[in-house]
Amino acid sequence: MLTRLPLGTVIGDAVRELETSEAKILLIVDEAGRLQGTITDGDVRRGLLRGHGLDHRVEDIMNAQPLVAQDGQSLDAVFEQANELEVRQIPIVDADGKVLRLLRKSDGQGWGGSRKLENAVLLMAGGRGTRLHPLTAERPKPMLSVGQKPILENILEGFIESGLQTFYISINYKGDMIKEHFGDGQRWGVDISYVEESEPLGTAGPLGALTAQDKPLIVMNGDILTKVDYRHLLDFHCAHNADATMCVREYDFRVPFGTVELDGDSVIRIEEKPVSRFFVNAGIYVVEPGVVSRVPKQTRVDMPDLFQDVLSDGGKVSAFPIHEYWTDIGRLDDFDRANADYATLFK
């Protein structure tokens, strides 16, 4: 089903439509229904990185010159161009520029269909979860139930839906409960191995225990509930030729007082309770094999430090902005909110 949105729609509304769109593309049309542009996941993320907020208009981020095909024309050249541009959807328009239908990679047309991904995933599940006490007195935080299944199981199933099949789980506190529940992954049709931390190794230290990787590795904290598209994450990482990619989340902080800007002892500007916008670390990463091999065995290393080392050595670190649902389950109120959200967002 095609999703058409009028010019002037705010980006936040477009994001919600995109998350439920089977075709993963939005068609932006004028009052007469003529195609003015398209929006895909990549357009949204690039727009967020350029500073456009969810209250901005779709015109600010849409692709105003999408690849289209005229109804009835030969598609051979169009498909060739689509492959060169790595385009996944092609709107078919009539003589007036109105969209009649949509061709997609998943429909065949020589583009190839869905595929399994050969990348591995490392899930960090060794923390003690002290801020969630007393819930974590008897079980590790990743085994707390959200939606009647452990947080870590929700995470695992999200990756499986994206085609990932090889997993490492780093465990420490009450790790036997995690091993007993997930085993070798046979129940889910995947392969699961474990990194057993005798001492806490931080958010990057377990990388030192992995076998050599030949593809980019996804690393994720084991206390996150999200609807991030991991295929898009890997595509983004590879397209940017990054050594490492960090998922980031937009965070607004409202100063609870009026701020005063001074020039010496003169007041030059007063702003009442301003809002500052930041990007914060979302606890999901992609790292190249060369970055994995930098981490020594049995050494405590945290991800921010590893990323800073990559930058200091002249490597490229990219930021992948998350617009999908995301919450870090670090406190009791986060846990309660995640369970409330689950019923409507994770059906």
Structural class: alpha/beta
The backbone outline, from C-alpha atoms, is: globular
| Multimeric state | single chain
Largest sheet strand order: 9-8-7-10-15-12-16
Overall pLDDT metric? 90
Q: What share of the residues lie within helices? A: 10-25%
Number of strands: 17
Briefly, what CATH class of the largest domain? Answer: Alpha Beta
Q: Total domains, how many? A: 2
Number of helices: 9
Low-confidence parts: 107-114
| Relevant CATH superfamily of the largest domain | Spore Coat Polysaccharide Biosynthesis Protein SpsA, Chain A
Order of helices and strands: EHEEHEHEEEHEHEEEHEEEEHHEEH
Characterization of this structure:
The protein has helices at 11-20, 41-49, 76-85, 151-161, 175-182, 230-239, 289-292, 303-312, 332-345, and strands spanning 4-6, 26-29, 35-39, 69-70, 89-93, 99-104, 117-125, 164-171, 191-196, 217-221, 224-226, 244-254, 259-263, 266-271, 275-287, 317-322, 326-328. With 347 residues, it is α/β, with parallel strands linked by helices. It has 2 domains: 4-107, CBS-domain, CATH 3.10.580; 117-345, Spore Coat Polysaccharide Biosynthesis Protein SpsA, Chain A (Alpha-Beta Complex). It has a 7-stranded mixed sheet with strand order 9-8-7-10-15-12-16, with helices on both faces. It has a 3-stranded mixed sheet with strand order 1-2-3. Strands 4-5-6 form a 3-stranded mixed sheet, with no helix packed on it. It is globular.
